[in-house]
Amino acid sequence: MLIDSILWQQAQMRPHKVALVCGDRRFTYAETADRTRRLAHALRGLGIQPGQKVAVLATNCAEHAEAVFAIAAIGAVWVPLNFRLSVPELAYIVDDSESVAVICTTDMQASAEGLRDIVRGVSTWISIGATALPGTVLYDDLLRQGSSGALASMAAPDDLFSIMYTSGTTGKPKGVMLPHRRFFVGTILSTIALKATEHDIKLQAIPQFHAGGYIYQLCHMAAGATLVILPRFEPEPTLALMQRERATAAGFVPSMLLALIEAPSFQTADFSALQRVMYGGSPIPEDRLARALERMGAKFLQTYGQTEAGVLVSVLDDADHDRGLRDAPQLLRSCGRAMLGYDIRIVDDAGAPTEGIGELAVRADSLMTGYLKRPDETAATLVDGWLRTGDLGWQDDAGRFYLVDRKKDLIVSGGENVYPIEIEHVLSSHPDVLDVAVIGVPDPRWGEAVKAVIVRRPGTSTDEASLVGFCRGKLGGFKIPKSVDFIDALPRNASGKIQKVILRDRYWAGHARKI
Questions:
Q1: CB 229 within 8 A of CB 60
Q2: How far apart are CA 146 and CA 381, in angstroms?
Q3: Could you report the per-residue pLDDT of 104-139, keeping only the tens digit for each?
Q4: Domains assigned to the chain
């Protein structure tokens, strides 16, 4: 149950099958395995030892996929870095993980240069592509120097495969520790749930550093599919690549899917080869999801998960998407049923099963072993074999789960619990609303009052009264925003999550409490 064994097995079973497509380059599984072996031998030659951490700061590319397998093969630990982070944020992760090497792509050179000035323990810098940084080893040189001979794995199933840092919207990122065995289990169960096959041509659009993006990638490689790698997402080039390569499967975060829908060529694009579209991370307004379903003509699968869970835990399948489009639109708000191998239950604050809205708790063989150097937070999150997700939701009679919010994002107004996602869902369906966040602000009467912070669509001029009126009849009276503010853009972190703490700060300044 080693992650690198996925590549070695496919190279034996399908040596001549194309594994990776990246620009005008194509590598078979045999070629990918050979390049990975050479890199692994070269990394050993650089002195990287089992258990040491190797950070990767790279945009999507074939080399990124190879590097992860090579790091795993020598028993080292992959630390993916979000290339959207600032240099100080990256430095925190490199130092906290105690990484000894950093592999980066040429387009990340400026960040790498900044990192070199402030990180403590990195002794090896490797560049995928040309670099002007002194003392940096070129990736291609390592491939030429590395042996193509047999490679004995230096990892054991319970050794760490990766430390993935959660993005979070408050506090410092936490390193999620994921051993080979557990991530392998999650990968195989995801392969089944996502219906990946050897016949797939899978578009890899989500960044490879992203836990969800990587699991989409790895489970398709575990099935023997071809991976078409998109270096950076832009709507028109993405549509062109999907058509040129005749992609049968694609994975997106919702913002990508929404951007594709608005692209000029979306209405005329040829989606005849496309069979499955996977998405997850946040809700998609039902009207836009319906547009995508109708135009793309593929089976849609919505996934829900957390890095701490070994990534995916539930799937809303294509049958429920079809029903949602046909006559049950509420189903499109669900994140689906627990995947095979996963137990999900709704619990109260004490961890006891409860009816109605509660916290989702997950039990599976893919769960993290804990947060790096954070025993107290580990103990609060992993309780009696269950992962406390911090997500609030409920379950219908058919076993589907519906998320209503993050536990910490609850608004209590006049003694009533208000879940912002419900209000955001309604407001996001207004034609003049481009982006929305709902927060609780101090109120002398209600304790907290519901406030909507809106980004208007360009060229529109909707006002507070119009939006409040739009909510009437769609929400209970206590959920309707008491006020609406308009701004040019919502603050987001490097992973695209809205930073509500920043929005709240301006309203809670001077208050001892923020609830």
A1: yes
A2: 42
A3: 999 999 999 999 999 999 999 999 998 878 889 999
A4: 340-406 (2.30.38.10), 411-508 (3.30.300.30)
